[in-house]
Design brief:
This protein is of the alpha/beta class. It has 2 domains: 125 residues, no CATH class; 244 residues, Rossmann fold (3-Layer(aba) Sandwich), CATH 3.40.50. The chain has 12 helices and 14 strands. The strands form 2 sheets. Strands 4-3-2-1-5-6-7 form a 7-stranded antiparallel β-sheet. Strand 11, helix 8 and strand 12 form a beta-alpha-beta unit. Helix 1 runs antiparallel to helix 2. The longest helix has 22 residues. The radius of gyration is 26 Å and the shape is globular.
């Protein structure tokens, strides 16, 4: 390390302390890229393997009534395998002007001046400990993801038994394990956004194209039985027999605030014209997802959570000479249309005043239909931000289809 730069020495030291399991934490601050706020590295045990878990905080625009303010929010979390760490960390240290390394053998700090001069302080005692000094540094206790996951629903909830997810003893049926995990994951995403819903009064929620309505029952149960809220929730679908069955289950379980209606989503209006606070939808097929999102935007729902199903419409209408090299391969054409369709949907929501994100609902190994589109209404649709999003949507739509469209 004698001939190394201070940054390279710090990266090597970080790798060595991670390998010897004496790394407590590394904090990367003063980023070169001002869109990033901070990066933190810690050791975690994932599926029996020790990894460096990287948590990245970015700076996002957050609306506060009339004035936008900058606020750091967690943007991503990823795991770095220790064999891959040298290459990853060599690049990472160059992106920050201050890095603090905390270990059980001591702490050190790298600073880079505006002129590019690098200074590494406190590294010698840590290096001596790694080289077998008099005092062997204590290994840390590494936590991780190997513990059994505590889920929001246990499986013993009466509605899960009624819907055939679990048996009378509360044991989830083997063939329903994926559905059970899906429902719990959806509730975790609900929990993440519930702060954006009204804190008092009755919550108004619609599940559009609800099908067998696993989520309707789960979301109603979450807010009423777990959070103690008053809820008025309606599930809407075109399948009359299914809606009648779901309504009967709700009545049988005493879920008075939950009802199901057979009807056309495009014509449906929430009871008595009440303000709808949240709209959810799981696997509405093809353009049915667009109908759901348009209805939710029309209502001005504060929160939208929608997981699309198939994406055939754009595949049929794709007409973009610039993308012909992809479109000539049918499988790749469909993958392109899948991604482009959901991106268009998010951009349209953005044009209607929503802060949007695409999330993973469940492990793609369990189902390819695992993308969640999330919209949180923050902005005035007449704002310059939303007008810009509308222009981008129209341009993208024309690029993909060759057709002009107005929002």
């Amino acid at each position: 390390m004698e001939n190394s730069t201070p940054a390279a020495s710090l990266a090597a030291l970080l790798c060595d302390t991670a390998q010897d399991e004496i790394l407590v934490k590394a904090v990367f601050s003063k980023p070169v890229d001002k869109a990033v706020s901070r990066v933190t590295l810690t050791l975690k045990r994932v599926k029996g393997e020790t990894v460096l878990q990287q948590e990245t905080l970015r700076v996002a625009d957050v609306a506060d009534t009339e004035v936008n303010r900058k606020k750091p929010v967690q943007a991503s979390q990823e795991n770095i395998r220790l064999p891959d760490a040298p290459a990853v960390l060599s690049a990472l240290v160059g992106e920050f002007d201050q890095i603090n390394l905390m270990t059980t053998a001591g702490n050190c700090e790298l600073r880079r001046s505006k002129g590019g001069k690098e200074t590494l302080m406190g590294a010698t005692p840590i290096q001596k400990a790694l080289n077998g000094g008099d005092n062997t540094p204590k290994k840390i206790t590494i936590g991780g993801n190997d513990k059994a996951k505590r889920r929001i629903l246990s499986g013993a909830e009466p509605f899960l038994m009624e819907l055939g997810v679990s048996d009378a003893s509360g044991r989830v049926h083997d063939k329903k394990q994926a559905k059970y995990r899906q429902i719990n994951r959806f509730l975790e995403l609900i929990r993440d956004v519930e702060s954006h819903l009204p804190a008092e009064g009755t919550l108004h929620i619609a599940d559009l194209c609800c099908g067998k309505s696993y989520l309707s029952f789960a979301v109603y149960h979450y807010f009423t039985a777990i959070k103690g809220r008053a809820v008025r929730m309606v599930g809407v679908d075109m399948k009359a027999e299914v809606m009648a069955e779901c309504d009967a289950i709700a009545r049988n379980l005493g879920m008075e605030g939950l009802s199901f209606i057979c009807g056309d989503v495009t014509r449906y209006e929430f009871p008595e014209g009440a303000q709808v606070h949240m709209v959810i939808s799981l696997h509405a097929c093809d353009i049915a997802t667009d109908i759901v999102l348009d209805k939710a935007s029309e209502w001005g729902a504060k929160v939208i959570l929608s997981t699309p199903c198939c994406h055939h419409d754009l595949n049929r209408r794709l007409n973009s000479p610039a993308l012909a090299f992809v479109a000539e391969h049918s499988m790749l054409r469909q993958k392109l249309c899948d991604a482009a369709t959901d991106t268009l949907r998010l951009k349209k929501l953005e044009a209607n005043g929503y802060d949007v994100t695409a999330l993973e609902l469940i492990d793609p190994e369990e189902t390819p239909k695992n993308i969640m589109l999330r919209g949180i209404r923050r902005y005035d649709p007449k704002s310059s931000r939303c007008r810009k999003a509308a222009e981008e949507y129209m341009a993208a739509y024309e690029f993909l289809t060759g057709e002009k469209i107005e929002l």
